[in-house]
Amino acid sequence: MVSRRAKEDKASADDTIRVLDLYQTRDKIVVRKLDGFFQRLKRYTGLPMLAAFLILPWLQFDGRQIVWFDLPARKFYVFNITFWPQDFMLLAWALIISAFALFTVTVMVGRVWCGFSCPQTVWTWLFMGAENIWEGDRNARIKLDKAPLSWNKLWRKSMKQASWVLIALVTGLTFVGYFNPIRDLVPSFFTLSAHPAALFWTLFFTVMTYMNAAYLREQVCLYMCPYARFQSVMFDADTLIVSYDQERGEPRGTRKKSTDYRSEGKGDCVDCSLCVQVCPTGIDIRDGLQYECISCGLCIDACDAVMEKMNYQPKLIQFTAGNKLVHNKEHFLRPRLLAYLVALLVMIGLFAQTIYSRVPLELDVIRDRNVLYRQVENGLVENTYTLRINNMDNYAHHYRISTRSQLDFDYRGQREVKVDKGEVLTLVVRLAIDPGLLKLPSEEVIFEIESIDTAGLTESQKSRFIGPRLF
Predict the structure, then answer these.
(1) Of 5, 244, 329, 457, which residue is most buried, by most CB within 10 angstroms?
(2) Rounded CA gap, 256 and 184, in Å?
(3) Which tens digits make up the pLDDT trace of 80-108?
(4) In this structure, are strands 241-244 and 317-320 parallel, antiparallel, or unpaired?
(5) Nearest Cα to 182, choosing from 47, 50, 56, 52?
(6) 454-460 contacts: CB < 8 A, separation 24 or more?
(7) For 335, which DSSP code?
(8) What is the model's pTM?
(9) What domains lie within the chain, and their CATH numbers?
(10) Which helix or strand (DSSP H or E) is residue 174 part of?
(11) What are the φ and ψ backbone dihedral angles of 99, each rounded to 5 degrees?
(12) Residue 421 three-state SS
């Protein structure tokens, strides 16, 4: 008879085994590099984005960085437009449009953003390129990893690590350069005279870039990216995805080129595993659609190369819809996709119109609330107002100030002012009137400013004139 203590120990051991089984050590994915259409497409989509990221901070416009997020001054400079905190809704709108565009692309062609344009993919591809330069192709890298420590292994690994650190450092400096003028940041960083915050964030993004692109790689896509988890919800039977034609390819098996494989009951798949070797996430597309697939199409290039060598028809693996494979029917322009496209185009049009018609001028009118009104000379009643004129343009302007109301107020203060670019001018003015002319104790008055040197640059703000109650 087994004692109670023995049973508890056995149960505890079983529980321990279950907990340990939840953890799986990562198997290193060594990706094979093969040339092909999607490999070139990956290069031509990633390189322009990478070049824009690296070059934009160095370009100048009107004496400043062409793209500069000046957080201390609360100004975002994007080309010839300056965005202020009050333009935050435009940023929110842009993010919503970007998300909706991603959803639309996902409904149309699946997860191609991840495979071609995602920064994680682009930088991983960059790090893998450096790895390929110093350590060789896939077989050479596997052999080098298994080899004992030697001078050849040491210098190759060292040069790879140095290249990774250099790429990560350039990335960190460039990213921080969007917030701290990069022409000042770079020399001050290497002389250690930069602001401590700039030094910290540069090193932080350097380390994070190095960790993400050098070691985490596909784990970011598999476990950290939320898009990988919910993107399949947006798929339908007509979404173009990377698919393996099982009816044509199975049963798979090796064979000689001259063999009549059909008589052996085999399909077109020669089971060479190249589609797995080129996959950056290490999956086998022949197992069907998986959330790990980033739709990079590299397995299509690998399979097409094998099909060409075997004199088989290409596209055993292809970008196609489920309906096309199963029912040989394709409905690309379907109601769901058209609805997404129409909604996206409407949002982009409205956003563009808002940016185009945006007036880079703001006027705030604050009436003096400490004193409702005061009696001045000749029995007139006077109100005091503080005008805050915010010139959000990139050029200085001369403005004319006027008022509009049903009553003829006596304006007392400057009529014309000059406001430099990015300046907020505070101005105190007064309005006076004979109290006998007031129909009500509170009358609406509109302050208006108009640029003298630029047509169409106007802004107005409503306020109130408070007088005595005479009835």
Answers:
(1) 244
(2) 64
(3) 888 888 888 888 899 999 999 998 999 99
(4) antiparallel
(5) 56
(6) 454/397, 457/359, 457/360, 457/361, 457/393, 457/397, 458/359, 458/361, 459/359, 459/361, 459/362, 459/363, 460/363, 460/404
(7) H
(8) 0.82
(9) 26-358 (no CATH), 361-466 (2.60.40.10)
(10) helix 151-177
(11) -65, -45
(12) coil
